[in-house]
Design brief:
heterodimer, A: 248 residues, mainly alpha, MetI-like fold, two-stranded antiparallel ribbon, 9 helices, globular, B: alpha/beta, Rossmann fold, 6-stranded mixed sheet, 4-stranded antiparallel sheet, 37% helix, binds adenosine-5'-diphosphate, binds magnesium ion
Chain lengths: 248, 250
């Protein structure tokens, strides 16, 4: 480890290639916090965007025309507007409309902080796409299979849970994977509202060390690695869910 | 015919049932009943409303007029307790419609566990016995996609039986099978009928209908044209339309 630090220190001094996060403890800590924040933010948003997708797809299949209409409006709105504008809308416009709360030191703080709004915003953004993805998967499940479940006494909800969703999920996994990769990349937008994720951490480093070039490369490589891990996980998942003798 | 059967009181009763899809009348003034332990066969050209009839009995399609009662449950009651109806009625479809993501054993076990909330260990014992009954011992861990059509259809029968239904509906369960595998399925259905299970089956297998049915109905264009005990029905059909149909298929 020390050898590595020495190497990068030498690289900076001798060749002016300054990867400060490799030898400077403070920079490394900032970077690792950024990395952790991105991972954590992505994880939470993946989970909640899937939940939004499931609920949306469920409501879309409901008998109530109002519920279907509401889902349509939601999907159109979040799919057809830029995510950065959505984030700003939540953080600046919606946040201001909510009543502030008093924290434990007696100060007046917003009900939902910047990290909270990033989560809400990205979950809805990716969730809107997930609604469409799940919907197409659900539509691919043969009506007759659902009827078989109904004939066995399954309620609509139970049939969804035990029959429709497991089958639909297998159909949508590739499209879902693409959307989740996009979501991970979209989390950099949280930089705009000061969430200390990777891009924010990198910018903190380069504004002090003036190593924009090096940090950009580090940033890109880090995202390549993060997305590779996600894609690998999704592939394994896809394989684990494969049904012998069945092609979706 | 099944001599030795003691037929009980009616368990399925249809009274003047009408069903229209839009302005296409599919069932017209259909009335009949099936007694406990009886095996009733429905035959008729395709498009005559046979599937619709079975689906109406199971409340998969609402009827337009008339009434259907199963074991005292009014099927067209707006406050119908669907679960109560469906645990009494098992249905087997032409295309098997197994759950492709579950093994044969799981297909049989799912509904009793998910719907009836029964103890999984007890359900498993029952499911294994049912798989043996339909002669599929050894295939418990196979997925539907790994089974032949006839094997899948027998899993579907076991799956319906796992709910301990009082009536079994069979909708052309051998129509999608080749002659060899057809036999395996028909053997299973015959056994069920012989054990006294109430069966209502739509079939194109005239020989089979003649052998297992207590009563045969011939439908065309949504009406019952003629019915009677199989010997009479097949031996001396009275209606010209019945004779024309039988001449065509026999
Ligand atoms: N869901 C439906 N919507 C509209 N028409 C239907 C529907 N199901 C069946 N039909 C029509 O009802 C008629 C009878 O169909 P079906 O009951 O499947 O006949 P069978 O099983 O005797 O071949 C057919 O003309 C068919 O097109
Ligand atoms: Mg049919």
């Amino acid at each position: 480890m020390d050898g590595t630090a020495d190497f990068f220190r030498w690289l900076a001094e001798a060749h002016r290639i300054d990867v400060s996060i490799a030898y400077d403890p403070l920079d490394r800590k900032r970077f690792l916090i950024g990395l952790w924040t991105t991972i954590w933010l992505s994880g939470v948003c993946i989970g909640s965007s899937i939940l939004v997708g499931l609920i949306g797809a469920w409501l879309h299949g409901a008998r109530s025309a109002a519920a279907r209409g509401a889902v349509q409006v939601f999907v159109q709105f979040f799919r057809n507007t830029p995510p950065l504008v959505q984030l700003a809308f939540f953080y600046f416009a919606v946040s201001a409309a909510l009543p502030p709360v008093t924290d434990r030191f007696g100060a007046s703080v917003p009900l939902i902080d910047n990290v909270g709004w990033a989560i809400v915003s990205f979950s809805l953004f990716a969730g809107a796409f997930n609604v469409e993805i799940f919907r197409s998967g659900i539509e691919a499940v043969p009506r007759a299979t659902v009827e078989a479940a109904e004939s066995l006494g399954y309620t609509r909800l139970a049939a969804y849970r035990h029959v429709v969703l497991p089958l639909a999920f297998r159909v949508c996994l590739p499209a879902l994977g693409n959307n989740l990769v996009n979501l991970v990349k979209t989390t950099t937008l949280a930089y705009a509202i000061g969430v200390p994720e990777l891009l924010y951490a990198a910018s903190q480093v380069w504004s002090e060390v003036f190593n924009v070039r090096e940090m950009m490369v580090v940033l890109l490589l880090t995202y390549v690695a993060l997305v590779a891990v996600l894609v690998h996980g999704l592939r394994r998942w896809e394989r684990a869910m494969r049904i012998p003798g069945y092609s979706a | 015919m099944n001599p030795g059967h003691v037929l009980g009181a009616p368990i399925v009763v249809l009274n003047r049932v009408e069903k229209r899809f839009g302005d296409n009348p599919v069932l017209r003034d259909v009335s009949f009943s099936v007694a406990r332990g009886e095996c009733v066969c429905v035959i008729g050209p395709s498009g005559s409303g046979k599937s619709t009839l079975l689906r109406a009995i199971n409340a998969l399609v609402p009827i337009s007029a008339g009434s259907i009662a199963v074991d005292g449950i009014e099927v067209n009651d707006p406050k119908l307790d669907k679960l109560a109806l469906r645990r009494r009625v098992g249905i087997v479809f032409q295309q098997y419609n197994l759950f492709p993501h579950k093994t044969a054993l799981d297909n049989v076990m799912m509904a009793p566990i998910h719907v009836l909330k029964e103890n999984p260990a007890e359900v498993e014992a029952r499911a294994r016995a049912l798989i043996a009954k339909v002669r599929l011992t050894g295939k418990e861990a196979a997925y539907p996609g790994e089974l032949s059509g006839g094997q899948q259809q027998r899993v579907a029968i076991a799956r319906a039986l796992a709910m301990n239904p009082k009536v079994m509906l069979f909708d052309e369960v051998t129509a999608a099978l080749d002659p060899e595998t057809k036999k395996e399925v028909l053997v299973t259905v015959r056994e069920l009928a012989a054990e006294g299970m109430t069966c209502l089956l739509v079939t194109h297998e005239m020989g089979f209908a003649r052998e297992v049915a207590d009563h045969v109905y011939f439908t065309e264009d949504g009406v019952i044209v003629e019915h009677g005990p199989p010997a009479e029905f097949f031996g001396s059909p009275k209606q010209a339309r019945t004779r024309a149909f039988l001449d065509q298929v026999l």
